[in-house]
Amino acid sequence: MRFPEDVPVLTDDVVTLRAHIAADVEPAYRMCQDPVMQKWTTIPVPYLHEHAVGYLTEVIPAGWRANTSWAWAIEYAGEYAGTVDLRDGEGGVGEVGFAVSPEVRGNGVMTRALRLVVRYAFDVLDWNRVIWRAYVGNFASRRVAWKAGFHGLVTIPDGGRSRGVRKDEWVATVGRDDELEPKGTWWTVPVVEGEGIRLRPLRESDAQRVMEACNDERTQHWLAGMPSPYDLDGAKEFISSRADAAASGDAVSWAIADAETDELLGNVSVFGMSSRLDGTRGEIGYWMHPEARGRKVMTTAVQLAIAHAFRPVEDGGLGRHRLVVRCADVNTASAHVAEVNGFTKVGDERRADPRRDGSYDNLLTYDLLATDLLSDDLLGG
Ligand SMILES: CC(C)(COP(=O)(O)OP(=O)(O)OC[C@H]1O[C@@H](n2cnc3c(N)ncnc32)[C@H](O)[C@@H]1OP(=O)(O)O)[C@@H](O)C(=O)NCCC(=O)NCCS
To answer: What sequence ranges are listed for the domain N-acetyltransferase (predicted)?
Structure first.
């Protein structure tokens, strides 16, 4: 192929993909100064002007001429907005890579550009599958890939390489016959308020409070699967695992925070929602920071979680029909939270809940059906 004459222009009328031109070097160089860009991609750091010149005027044209990689400039609102490329298409399977400049992010530009190149890969390059890879934690990239139909996400420990350092990597793919639309649910974690508390997404700055709550003797006793001791890294891992659980459709997990100070008081989750067969059940789990116990905070938090869980998906809820709570029969505080929220005890499994010392407690199951809640106020009005 000749460059730039043979580079096809792809457009959906909002975003246009075209051959790079000399005038793109400056904005591409500026984009690569962005710390987010440097964190999530393999570009050289520090990123020099000559890197942009070399990539745009030598590497990209060479790829087109040799028919080994295909990179387009992303144009949005008449300006260069980023670059997207396809590469390594041997055997009909290849990879996609992309970046847009910070000013245009969050407008759906990348999702549009990604759909255009994936279609090109299938229709013109005759690929059967496109692979997306990102370092673990790059949720913006994961969301773009998810919106464009990539699915079957797996994590490969140390699968990625960044300037000589190995990093855990996410990989997902989209096939020729797939629709370029989301597969599976990505839950959002809404902010919900009531009776002096706020349910909100967990954030990194909660790590210290999470660590304190999870190191507490009673939390450690009843939630015996937790790491022990529970350190700050464990708390950070827990917080990022909750974002992952929402993205994979499994769980919505909130920080229970004081409505005034926003300080974390505990955690409540609706989880176990990724079954392909049954999209109507969920389990509620919780723990409380020791300083916040005994004030009915968890009772209120669970009430708010129930209301969100039973609300139909089209109204922004989780569309659940049946919720369960499980706890050891001797964990009276936890059983109380379920009972005062209207749950019915439906199971008592003998010696089913292991403790750290090798002993077992009986495990109670409580359930609550959406149809049990005739009273409007339990559903939040
Ligand atoms: C990844 C990137 C290309 C996305 O570009 P973009 O134009 O903002 O993408 P879109 O607007 O099409 O979609 C981004 C989505 O991610 C969401 N998002 C952004 N940050 C997020 C986060 N931390 N957690 C969850 N979702 C996030 C946005 O809300 C948006 O979703 P929505 O439209 O449903 O609200 C851009 O962030 C970027 O250039 N990052 C640096 C380079 C990079 O990471 N490249 C990919 C390497 S694998």
So the answer is: 15-172, 197-367
**Residues 339-374 pLDDT 10s:** 999 999 999 999 999 999 999 999 999 999 999 986
Structural domains of the chain, ranges and CATH numbers in brackets = 10-175 (3.40.630.30), 192-379 (3.40.630.30)
Q: In which region does residue 169 sit, left (phi positive, over 0), alpha (psi from -120 to 50) or beta (all else)?
A: beta
Alpha-carbon dihedral of residues 331, 332, 338, 343, nearest 10 degrees?
A: 100
Burial (CB < 10 A; 0-12, 13-18, 19+), residue 93, is middle
State if residue 80 touches ligand 1 by the CB under 6 angstroms criterion: no
pLDDT at 381 > cutoff 50 = no
pLDDT tens-digit map of 224-260: 888 889 999 999 999 999 999 999 999 999 999 999 9
Provide the Cα torsion 132, 134, 138, 140; round to 10°: -20
- The preferred substitution site among 14, 79, 110 for testing ligand 1, maximizing ligand atoms within 8 Å of CB, is 110
Task: Report d(CA 288, CA 259) in Å as an integer.
Answer: 16
DSSP states of 235-303 as a string? HHHHHHHHHHHHHTTS-EEEEEEETTT--EEEEEEEE----SS-SSEEEEEEEE-GGGTTSSHHHHHHH
How many other CB atoms are found less than 10 A from the CB of residue 35?
A: 9
Query: Ligand 1 pocket, 31 CB below 6 A?
Result: no
Q: Which two tokens stand for residue 184?
A: 């599976």
Say if residues 193 and 259 touch (Cβ distance below 8 Å): yes
Strands 192-194 and 197-201: antiparallel
CA distance 83 to 28: 8
Q: Phi and psi dihedrals of 66, rounded to 5?
A: -85, -5
Helix pair 232-247, 207-215: axis angle to 10 deg: 110
Q: How many whole angstroms separate alpha carbon 220 and alpha carbon 96?
A: 44
Mutate to test the pocket of ligand 1, among 36, 95, 144 (most ligand atoms within 8 A of CB): 144
